[in-house]
# Entry
Amino acid sequence: MARPCPPHHHIECHRCGIATVPSPSRAITEARWHDPSAHIPIHDLARVREQIAAAVANAA
# Structure
């Protein structure tokens, strides 16, 4: 039976077209906003969330 994916937080800037890589920790999300290597295009958020859900499902 599938288990729900834990919530993950991210920050988006539609003006810049970027977002932070989702993280279960709000503190890590805030830190990633100041690290350009942790930014992804906003249109990639859905793909990254699917990867997180798959990783959680495989770990269960």
About this structure: The two ends are 10 Å apart (CA to CA). Helices lie at 26-33, 45-59. Residues 12-59 form one domain. The mean pLDDT is 89.
